[in-house]
Design a protein that fits this description.
Number of strands: 16
Strand order of the largest sheet: 1-10-9-8-6
Order of helices and strands: HHEEEEEEEEEEHEEEEEE
Shape: elongated
Radius of gyration: 22 Å
Structural class: mainly beta
Oligomer: single chain
Helix content: 10-25%
Length: about 300
C-alpha cells in the first residue's frame, strides 16, 4: 500500500512537462508562433483593447453626455450636448439623444434606447463618427466604455516582446478537483471584488519545488479555465500586476498550463480596463520566463 508521501511524489512526477502526442518540437514552436500572431490580430482589431480611450462611471439618475465641459461625461468628439444616459434604481440604463442625427444606436438613427451591457452577446453600441461607447457593469457599478480605432494607442502599436518559446513551460499538472466547488474573491483595478468559482487546483513541480495554481471559471458555461498569476518576473521583465492564461478543461486527472501562452492583461495597454488581479494563492515563488514581457507602449 502506497503512503501519502509516495502518492504525492508519483503525482508530481506525472506533472512533468510533456509534448502533445505526435507533436514535434518544430510543430509546437509553430503552434505558439501562430497563437502569438492571432493574439496580435485580436489586440489590434478596431474594437480591441488598444482602441480603449475612456471609462466613465455613471451616477444614479441622469448623466449628461457630450463634448462640452459642463457635461457629467465629457467626450472628445461629437456635439457639445449629445444627450442623457439615465441609470434607474433597478439598474437598467437608457439613453436619450438631444438630436437623433448626432449619433447612431446600433447603427440606427433613433432618439432613445435601452442600453444592454457587455454581459450580453451584443451590447448596445452608440457611435459618433469613429468613436463608440457601450455600457459595462462590474460588481454593481455601471459605466460607459469608450473606444476609438484612431487612438494613438492603436495606431502607434509596435508589437509585444516575449520570451523565447520554451517547450518545458508547457506543464502537465496534476488536477485536484474541489467538491464542492470553492470560491475566491479577487480584487480588481477599479477597487471592487469579483467572485470566481474555483473547480479545483493544479499542482506541478519546477526545479525541485512544488507549486499550486487555482484556475477559475471566468464566465458560467466557459469551456476553458482562466488563470490569473504573478511570479518573480512581475514588475521586472513582465507586467507588474501579473499575467493571464487559459487552460483546457482537466482530463484524466491532469491539466495543461502552457506558460508560453501567458499574456498581458488589458490593463497593461490602457488605464481604462477593469482587470482582475491574481489572488494570493496564484502568486508563484518562481520566475516564469515564458510568455509575454512588459509592454513598452511603443517607447
Amino acid at each position: 500500500m502506497m503512503t501519502t508521501a509516495l502518492l504525492l511524489a508519483s503525482a508530481i512526477a506525472a506533472a512533468a512537462p510533456a509534448a502533445t502526442p505526435g507533436e514535434t518540437p518544430a510543430d509546437y514552436t509553430q503552434t505558439i508562433q501562430q497563437w502569438r500572431a492571432d493574439r496580435i490580430v485580436r489586440l489590434k482589431a478596431p474594437d480591441g483593447w488598444l482602441s480603449l480611450v475612456g471609462l466613465d462611471w455613471l451616477k444614479p439618475g441622469a448623466n449628461r453626455i457630450g463634448s462640452a465641459e459642463d457635461n457629467d461625461i465629457v467626450l472628445k468628439v461629437g456635439p457639445p450636448h449629445l444627450g442623457t444616459v439615465t441609470l434607474a434604481d433597478d439598474g437598467s440604463v437608457a439613453i436619450a439623444l438631444d438630436k437623433p442625427g448626432d449619433a447612431t444606436i446600433d447603427g440606427k438613427h433613433v432618439a432613445h434606447a435601452s442600453l444592454l451591457d457587455d454581459s450580453h452577446d451584443h451590447p448596445t453600441i452608440v457611435a459618433i463618427g469613429s468613436t463608440e461607447f457601450y455600457l459595462i457593469e462590474r460588481e454593481g457599478k455601471h459605466g460607459l466604455r469608450i473606444k476609438n480605432p484612431q487612438a494613438p494607442s492603436r495606431t502607434g502599436f509596435t508589437g509585444i516582446d516575449s520570451y523565447p518559446i520554451d517547450p518545458s513551460w508547457r506543464i502537465v499538472a496534476k488536477w485536484v478537483p474541489f467538491d464542492p466547488v470553492h470560491h475566491v474573491q479577487v480584487a480588481t483595478r477599479i477597487g471592487t471584488l469579483a467572485d470566481f468559482p474555483v473547480p479545483g487546483k493544479a499542482v506541478f513541480e519546477r526545479d525541485g519545488h512544488t507549486y499550486t495554481v487555482l484556475p477559475v471559471i471566468e464566465v458560467p458555461g466557459d469551456t476553458e479555465l482562466f488563470v490569473m498569476f504573478a511570479d518573480r518576473t512581475s514588475g521586472k521583465t513582465t507586467y507588474g500586476a501579473g499575467r493571464f492564461l487559459y487552460a483546457a478543461m482537466p482530463k484524466d486527472g491532469k491539466i495543461v498550463l502552457d506558460f508560453n501562452k501567458a499574456y498581458n492583461p488589458p490593463c497593461a495597454f490602457t488605464p481604462y480596463a477593469t482587470c482582475p488581479l491574481p489572488p494570493p494563492e496564484n502568486r508563484l515563488g518562481l520566475a516564469v520566463t515564458a510568455g509575454e514581457k512588459t509592454y513598452t507602449h511603443g517607447e
